[in-house]
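Dissemination and training. As part of the outreach component of the grant, students in the summer workshop were shown how a complex can be specified as a set of sequence lines and then modelled as a single object. The example used during the hands-on session is reproduced here so that future cohorts can follow it. Participants entered these lines:
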Amino acid sequence: MGVLMNSLPLLSILTLLPLVGAALLSFIPPEKIKFVRRFALATALLTLGLTGWLWCHYDPADWRMQFAERAVWVPSLGIEFHLGVDALGLLMVLLAAIIIPFAMLASWKITENPKLYFGLLLLLETGLFGTFTAINFFHWFIFWELSLIPAFFLIKLWGGPNRTRAAMQFFIYTLVGSVTMLLAFLAILSATGICDFVQLADLARDGELQSILFAKLGGGLFKTREILGTVLFLGVFLGFAVKVPLLPFHTWLPDAYAEAPTGTSMVLTGVMSKMGVYGFLRILLRIFPDQTRAALTPLLWLAVATIVFSAFAAFAQKDLKRMVAYASINHLGYCLLGIFAVAQVTGTSVNGPLEKTAVLNGVMLQMFNHGLTAAALFYFVGILEQRSGRRSIDDFGGLRKTAPILCGLMGITLFASLGLPGLNGFIGEFLIFKGVFPLATAAAAVSTIGLMVTAIFILTLIQRVFHGPLPGGTSSANSGAVDLTRTERFTVIPIITLMFVLGIYPQIVIALTNPTAVQMVQKLAQ
Amino acid sequence: MPFILKILWLIPVLPLLAAGISALLPRGSRRLSATLAIGSMFISFLLACSAFMATFHASRSVLNFSWFDLADTSVRLGIVLDPLTVLMLVMVTFVGLLIFIYSLGYMEHDENFGRFFCFLSLFAAAMLGIVIANSLLLLFICWELVGLASYLLIGFWYHKPSAAAAAKKAFIVTRLGDIGLFLGMIWLYANTGTLLFYDNGNGCLEQSALAKLVAHTTIGGMAVSSVIGILIFCGAMGKSGQFPLHVWLPDAMEGPTPVSALIHAATMVAAGVFLVARVFPLMSDGGSLLHPAVPLQVITWIGAITAVFAASIAVAQNDIKRILAYSTVSQLGYMMMGLGVGGVAVGMFHLITHAFFKALLFLGAGSVIHGCHDEQDIRRMGALRKYMPVTFAAYAVGMMALCGVPLFFSGFWSKDAILHAARHWPVSIVPFVLGIVGAFLTAFYMTRQMHYVFFGQKASSQSAPPHESPPVMTIPLVILAACSVLLGFIGTPAWPWFESYLSGEPVKFQLANFSATAGLMLFSIIVVSVGLGSGYLIYRARVASQALDPLEKSFPALYHLLGQKFFIDELYAATIVRLNGSLAKLSDWLDRVIWSGVVSAIAWVVLALSVFSRAVDEQGVNQGFDQGCQTVRGSSRLLGLWQNGQVQRYLRVIGAALCLLVLLLLWGCS
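and obtained this result:
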């Protein structure tokens, strides 16, 4: 069994599985709604099972890309089909595989063309898997863009009242970033003939990449190596900065998250936002280490601004979905703070590598944890909206009386998001701060404002929505707020359990991420 | 390694399991939840007692373990068994057990009875976790969980907006302090590479780490150890309600009274004091007997200010629990001051004695509130000693212990130890003076409260007659009262068992030590008598229950200032809360106007460009093209004439051409 499994192109199968599912889905007659849903969910769960198998068979001691597949594709252009995962990629694949069925269950009641909806979700999953497993720019970029299309249609067709504008904004913003990134990589490809991330990273580490690029592309506008490097860096940077997002490229996000249907918001925040962080970690930091280092101070402070401003902006929101959306920006801000701090030159400091390893472990944990927590939060807000038809913070009150289980579980999720120790959110933030503090003390210290303000807006949310008297004094005003149904409980309890498990015993993830983090730090060594 | 150390983890884990199980139980299972909570607490108490026995022989033993890997090392947590831990363990489990039992009676009619015991157990677990932690990280984790439990319990009656607001305020204000603690923790981690307190010479509280910390200096030339110490103290300030982070504690009285007794008087608020005691080697790092380290000076000053500040507010409060809350803040100030001037033993002794008599006072107040049908305003009480004799007697013991009535009450000995140490503090005499003023105020406001509640006349506004509480509530009162008296004798100057136990030395009985402190003792007895006497004289005259407070009559402005708590809440509302709101609005505005504006501007530019290019297309390219087309069309129309399909015309043209050709040929040939 094991030998057989090992000889199979597992990552390709994994990536194609949802695609095949989506294709088969199209043959089901649309009136068989139940079968459509079950088939889609079964596909997603099968995918999750396969991912689980990969997780169990990943060898943490081996730092190389595992489950690797490699085939020559377009030799004249240096394009290879190259797949593989390290702990970072595997963690993201697992996250996507968890969130997609979760989002399907959250969209169970969708009546408007469910066949297309579930098909698009599966297609999106393929895009995500492809992005997180590709090592060659060529097909990585195809999947990167492929994930954009289903997301666009999911917002555009099933979204809220302002969905057209939101979907358009989302699409164009992301596309602009993609275009600049594509141009930068085309330049690199034309100069070096390489578009394999690992090879490029190796070149960049030795400092050869810049010389080759300058030899081929220098002159004209690009008078010096630095200018050329910076331009290419900015092109790639923009693509990821929009996706995460980093201030000030974030204004598409609250609209998109707020207008998207619940299930889509969950995937957007849970997994798609990680594509940007993943890109920073896997691509930008590795291929442009010198440029990141050169721009370190502004980058760090942009991350700090992202953390602080988005926390304050979340506090100012009335719409619960927008509030959670801003909270999402805030949490990913910590990841970016960590990633930029890792670029810091530590020179001969003995503790430098240790601190950087802590940061990278923290960033990976934070990505995974945020995926779970933020998706669950959107799930709960979606339930509130579905029950009452409203989602402003002022529309509720005393919900603990009428819906104690909903409030209990959502409360746990909110506290996980706040970073309460014992739940998953804490470990990532602790490790990030632990490492960033010695690397970039002032930035870390100012960022703690974000921790403070997060507590304020989350507790305000709890106070307004769960506590106090029932609105209007009568129970009829709140009659929509029925407690969680059995299905809903079974949907969310695995996620909540995972929050506890990761909060209490993070070693199960760190056992995998730690060797990868050590490896990344060694490759970045400066 | 003593066997008890191996099972020490059970002490917090048992209540944690009880909390977990009762969280999953259906809401109706009241009896089971209470049984689980009380049973687990009882076992923890027994374990704590056996741990107490173990510490007589060995001074300190630790059990460290790896939590998760980090690079080629790991992040380690640990538990520690030493006198400091064990004292707290015994105190928390014992007081906790009594309060759990008391809650059976007090919360009997509450619909969320089971949930209450779930939260209480969660609290106990987290508090016991703080106590046994041998790692600042584990301590911090439990510290935050204690905050959560406190939040849940203050907001237990969440349908009351005031309770919901108070819970939020408590969490946020303590979190403000916790951010300091968090920063201190990661700074300490960065500098020492470990967060374990004791680790065979490699812990962060041990010599090598401390020497490293004091050798480095940072901003303003302060030693790193001082800065870290002050940051950690920020956390303690939040939890222990030190000025200016005390604002949440009086509001926390919105919670059920057993919660106020357990969490906001006896144990949780003392966690800050315990934290300082735990990291005392760090706090005193780099200091000497004549020049105490900077963090200790800060602690002393903050403590002394808090002691007087809160005591003066307590004078003008009318809510029975709020008076006790401000009294708690004031006593916590004493404990901090005690740590600052006298070291661990002095501060901790007051912590322990205070835990008993303040729990007693709160439970007594709960009994009063219960008996008066949820009345909390002392102006609407009176003459209760006739209706509630047991409560009255127990309350009187607690009151005298708090005031420091000499010799027979524990508060006298513990407070005197603090004042004695403050008297000899080399930096300044002012904390001592503040301590004396605080002692006077304490005696005064407690006399006032006693008079209002138990003496005077029965208030006319009371509808049903007050009644004594059931035995399940009064028996814990009696036990606590007994402890409030007896505990004093373990820490007298003549037989300082408490101090010797903490330092691990054999205790000696020396009557001669009394003479060294006799003068000060006499002085403090006079101060307390003046406080009690003036309280008695001023309030003796007040007979009519509707009359104004005599102080209010004499000093209306001062009384108002104290009654409004020096307007600290208003000050916060006008500054920090408003700043926070403005920043939130600013961020939102930045998003909506500036960042969106930039994007919109870009969109507009793009739109303008497209309009322009369209114009160019229309006017330039298209028109040229159109003209070209027109020309072609004109000429084609012209050409079209030649082929309009009229055969006659074709023939006519052919005929004409033929004629022309003939003519030409003829002309050419000729």
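Residues 197 and 204 of chain B are 5 Å apart (CA to CA). Students were then asked to discuss how this feature might be tested experimentally.
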